[in-house]
Write a structure and sequence with these properties.
This is Chromophore lyase CpcS/CpeS. By secondary structure, the protein is of the alpha+beta class. Helices cover 17% and strands 44% of the residues.
């Protein structure tokens, strides 16, 4: 089955669910230390009935009935063997502006740039690229993200302060295979190896 690029936020969340290995390159336009590196990103889809989704809507003064659902984003160091702390997760809630679901508001319990509750604007282009614009108290951020394949995606972001561009970030992300998926792959390969050739 050919890969279908997601063009609604909830489909984007569903396509993103799982664990991703992220390679991050950060370009600062001042003397801040290099923040490039590697990490793991854990994404879990949340239903519209999830208490976290409901709570964030209420905090932002949005009718929870307008929310289609959301997702939990948790980060950890690449070689960290402990599970990420769910209390430090960023929760994103999808509130589309129309029935197409291709544009809307993204409610967050904490932003990426400033750790404060924030409402972003998002839209999907005809090319399947997701663009998210966020106005913080002191900064403006834009993130663009798109899938190359089902298991490889790219994120590019910029942060602008009052005096201009502050930093740019490029991330390439590969989906991690779970132990269960690895076992299934091994079993399938073993079956193919012993199966008589046609």
């Amino acid at each position: 089955m050919p890969f279908s690029v997601p063009t609604t936020m909830m489909n984007f969340f569903r396509q993103s669910e799982g664990v991703w290995y992220t390679q991050r390159t950060v370009h600062h336009f001042d003397t801040v230390a290099d923040e490039s590196g590697e990490s793991n990103l854990h994404i879990t889809v949340l239903s519209s009935e999830d208490p976290r989704v409901q709570r964030i809507c209420e905090q932002q003064g949005i009718d929870p009935a307008l929310a289609k659902g959301g997702a939990s984003f948790m980060w950890q160091a690449n070689h960290d063997e402990q599970a990420p702390n769910p209390d430090q997760a960023a929760i994103l809630v999808d509130v589309p502006v129309d029935a197409s679901g291709q544009a809307g508001r993204l409610l967050r319990n904490q932003g990426y740039v400033e750790k404060i509750p924030v409402v972003s604007r998002y839209w999907f282009g005809q090319d399947g690229i997701l663009t998210i614009d966020t106005d913080y108290d002191q900064n403006q951020g834009q993130e663009r993200c798109w899938f190359i394949t089902e298991d490889f995606r790219v994120r590019v972001s910029t942060v602008r302060m009052l005096n201009g561009v502050y930093l740019m970030t490029y991330c390439s992300e590969r989906r991690c295979i779970t132990p269960l998926q690895m076992t299934e792959l091994l079993q399938n390969n073993q079956l193919r190896a012993i199966a008589p050739s046609a």
